[in-house]
Design a protein that fits this description.
This protein is an all-alpha fold. It has helices at residues 2-10, 17-33, 40-60, 71-90, 94-123, 127-157, 179-201, 209-231, 235-254, 262-285, 292-299, 327-345, 356-364, 378-404, 412-429, 435-452, 457-465.
């Protein structure tokens, strides 16, 4: 009997290759078009195909989901239960909550199943077969932006009639992509590129041509993402890019396996040059960084300077230097403080992912503008939406998956860690509590958790015998 179990553990059958290829194709399509307007059909097809194949993967590796390491997946499952309970018993606006439940939570559930199944499939497959496909999908939003930017500038410069769907816009238009969506979908690509540069710097063997090619790819993605943030004037994206490079540098110097080498020195110099040049360009376009602290002091005085209530409709106060505060600095500080106060008054949440801050602010301060909707902190908006219990489930799942990432085989380990780290950061001060970006957050957590369910031959053997 012992021999048969051992043999079975060796002969465990993986999923058919076509299933994994279909899952990867669905991921590439979904991540490429998720933030693009007016092409909902492609997104829906990718989600449905991915969810169906994800169910098949989860069932095939169902024993792995019984591990303690699957706790993040159970936290997300509990989140859906909590959202349903909240809708029925706790929502302060049942009609709007029901409409949002059918829309946002449906897409989020499909994405969660798709991601968990994809993770389970990839961890059992040879990374050489699928890593490049997944990484291409991750970088697709950046590459699409570069294409649209090039077509817009060159085509329009030559007097060509460029279709509206492939132009780049800086203000709201039918095909406009919000800055917050660019941060949510492109910052993970930059973060994972840094993770790959870190892995390259730790190679103790002589670099081969493939390593140099990998280096060029990561540098290209880093430069492209920083270019996007600069061209679109996305201060949030650039701020978190700086935080990520600081974390990257700390890891580079203080990891136990860190040793000074020419590879590491070359990576350091390249990264410093890239981020230094981008920082110089960005600072020239955004003088508001200079008055950040002075503006924050004004924003912290909610009752003395109440202009934050009116979403720029009544102008802005002056800071201690006699200069008008930057709306970005002033509003975000004031809204964050107001949102935190509201979260303490409504610890179970209002019930809306997208507009709880505006609704609760209207209850507390009836004079606030109807244009006030988000606190501009994704995490705070989630607390106001699903309460501290719902936020606790999401945040716990994310932290647990980050912790498990260190034991995932490469390249998936760094992929999960750096992608989730970027999400952890960007949700702090970015207006991302919305349909697509919320579904994406849950998607990343479930994908990382699926990848963390490492091979357990005894469980798989028992599954095969059954």
């Amino acid at each position: 009997m012992t021999l048969s179990i051992t043999q079975s553990s060796v002969r465990v059958s993986n999923l058919p290759d076509w299933v994994i290829r279909l899952q990867c194709a669905a991921f590439v399509l979904l991540y490429a078009v998720w933030i693009l307007p007016e092409i909902v059909g492609f997104r829906n097809v990718a989600l449905v195909v991915g969810a169906c194949t994800g169910i098949y993967s989860i069932w095939h590796y169902r024993q792995l989901v019984l591990q303690v390491r699957a706790l993040p997946l159970y936290c997300i499952a509990a989140l859906f239960v909590w959202a349903s309970f909240h809708l029925v018993f706790l929502s302060q606006n049942p009609e709007l909550s029901k409409m949002e439940y059918v829309r946002i939570w449906k897409y989020t559930a499909l994405g969660a199943v798709m991601a968990a199944g994809l993770g389970l499939s990839l961890i059992r497959a040879d990374p050489k077969d699928y890593w490049r496909v997944i990484y291409f999908g991750l970088c697709a939003p950046v590459l699409i932006y570069l294409f649209k930017f090039g077509v817009s500038k060159i085509g329009l410069g030559l007097g060509l009639d460029v279709p509206a769907a492939i132009r780049v816009y800086e203000v709201s238009q039918p095909f406009y992509v919000p800055k917050t969506d660019y941060v949510a979908f492109c910052l993970p690509a930059l973060s994972v590129a840094l993770g790959r540069l870190l892995a390259l710097s730790h190679l103790h063997t002589r670099w081969r041509s493939q390593n140099f090619f990998d280096l060029l790819i990561q540098i290209f993605i880093s430069v492209s993402t920083l270019f996007l943030f600069t061209a679109q004037n996305i201060k949030n994206g650039f701020a978190y890019a700086v935080l990520l490079i600081i974390i990257f540098t700390v890891f580079l110097f203080f990891e136990s396996r860190a040793k000074l080498s020419w590879q590491k020195l070359s990576v350091i110099l390249l990264v410093i040059a890239i981020f230094g040049g981008a920082a110089s360009l960005h600072s020239q376009k955004n003088s508001s960084w200079k008055n950040l602290i002075a503006d924050a002091k004004i924003g912290a005085q909610l009752d003395v300077y109440p202009q934050w209530k009116y979403a720029s409709e009544q102008g802005y106060p002056l800071n201690e230097f006699g200069v008008q505060v930057s709306p970005t600095n002033y509003d975000r500080v004031a809204w964050a403080i107001a949102g935190f106060q509201l979260s303490l008054e409504h610890p179970l949440g209002y019930g809306l992912i997208e507009d709880s801050f505006g609704k609760l602010a209207k209850l507390r301060w009836p004079e606030v503008s109807p244009n006030l909707s988000h606190s501009h902190s994704g995490w705070l908006d989630l607390i106001l939406a699903v309460g501290y219990p719902g936020f606790g489930l999401i945040f716990s799942a994310l932290l647990l998956t980050l912790f498990h990432a260190k034991s995932i085989k490469e390249p998936w380990g760094s992929f999960v860690f750096w992608a989730l780290l970027s999400n952890l950061l960007l949700w702090c001060t970015t207006e991302v509590s919305a349909t697509v970006t919320f579904a994406t957050l849950i998607f990343w957590i479930c994908l990382g958790s699926g990848l963390s369910l490492v091979r357990n031959t005894s469980l798989l053997a028992a599954d095969e015998i059954a």
